[in-house]
Predict the 3D structure of the following.
Amino acid sequence: MPVRNEQVPDRNIAMELVRTTEAAALAAARWVGRGDKNGADGAAVDAMRLMLDTVDMDGIIVIGEGEKDEAPMLYNGERVGNGRGPQVDVAVDPLEGTRLTAMGRPGAVSVIACAPRGTLYNPHDIFYMEKIAVGPEAKGMIDLAAPVAWNIQQVARAKSIGVEEVTVIILDRDRNTEIADQVRAAGARIRFITDGDAPAAVSAGVAGSGVDMMVGIGGSPEGVVAAAALKCVEGDFQGRLWPRNDDDRKYAADHGLSLTDVLTIDDLVKGDDVFFAATGVTTGDLLKGVEYRPGGATSESLVMRSRSGTIRRILTEHHWRKLQTLGGMR
């Protein structure tokens, strides 16, 4: 007697979303090393926007390229998708690492995350955030309000390693100098990055990356994207909005945004069904970059969903005719 299927699994739209990050990565990769970060970003935005309308979803951009008067496409509040699927919030960064791409440096990626409508945190115009990110072993063991050394000890304990074996990734900025000094004083190792703290945070939650945690002050939108990705791998993330000046403090007060509250991963991503996709543009710790070959190219992508816990690495071969459409190649 056949077994009755009581519940048919719903669709994993992350498998569709990865086509948008692949398109953006392929388009941006044509600009690697050309010194034009705006050209690279524009190509990625155009390609991702084109592909988003083919995805079965009713999406609203929550984290995008900026307000409508600043961004003609993928602006905050823009509706994306073909309108026939689930209602979702969408966070996009068609090219995380514009300067990395322009200078031909490692670590540039294209990323997108989706969660049920009304569940992604919106930092509005507070552009920076203090962050800490760890993998599943240290979930529930971190506290952004505690000293850096204490958090490093927690990660070491969770992973059953010595503090001196913990590798902490930090965005190399003056605002993070004091944090880096605390990491050194604790006895842990540091891996500095010049850009791209979203993939850096994600790498803290992915096995085999060589990264145990990420700390420091970086972009708020990137923090929300990273939180979405870490939720998919059952990692942990905490953030706190960081004002640059008095204008930011006034803006936060006027818009009811706390500059003191620590935002947990569940504050940043309330939904329990999160989709994440990323495709490498230039090879880094998280993903291999696009490699062009006669007649086409290859790309590597990371595709994850929190509800199912699936983590897929996808190596894709792209035919040259597709590249013509996406990147204007001849």
